[in-house]
Amino acid sequence: xxxxxxxxxxxxxxxxxxxEYKAAKKKDSPGRAKFIDxxxxxxxxxxxxxxxxxxxxxxxxxxxLEDAILESLEEHHVLKWTLEEIAAIGVEDxxxxxxxxxxxxxxxxxxxxxxxxxxxxxxxxxxxxxLQELGAQLEKAKKTAPRTPNPDRVVAR
Length: 157
Ligand SMILES: [Fe+2]
Ligand SMILES: [Fe+2]
Fold this sequence. Notes:
Blueprint: H1 3-23, H2 29-61, H3 66-89, H4 96-125, H5 128-144
Helix pairs in contact: 1-2, 1-4, 1-5, 2-3, 2-5, 3-4
Bound molecules: fe (ii) ion (2 copies).
The site of one fe (ii) ion (FE2) has 6 residues, from helix 1, helix 2 and helix 4.
């Protein structure tokens, strides 16, 4: 699969999770708690494969996008902390929904920037064959990507 198509499909799956969270009743604690597990897993894998495969390739092959990549890395960094914090405070905390809402807004902003500001420039700069090749690498990286936001940190729960 084409790398950009693969990443966009991931984005779509995440926004489906977000819509489901919004539709869930506030009282549905198990559903709301499961949401953060599902969202954390999907976002951790997605961020990791972008960081391992896509961002480095874009950075070296499309130099004018270097600032966009650096900004994206910072957004991933903040997202991982937020995901960890949400899982740690738990669904009963009065700040849970507020933190989830802000996290979802930040992810939407990040995805919007990727899809509208710079993915089109990557598509322009790289050949179809190269995008297919990166797509295959992304697919492969998914298998070993971390399932949690900050796997190198031990978090006391
Ligand atoms: Fe990203
Ligand atoms: Fe992305």
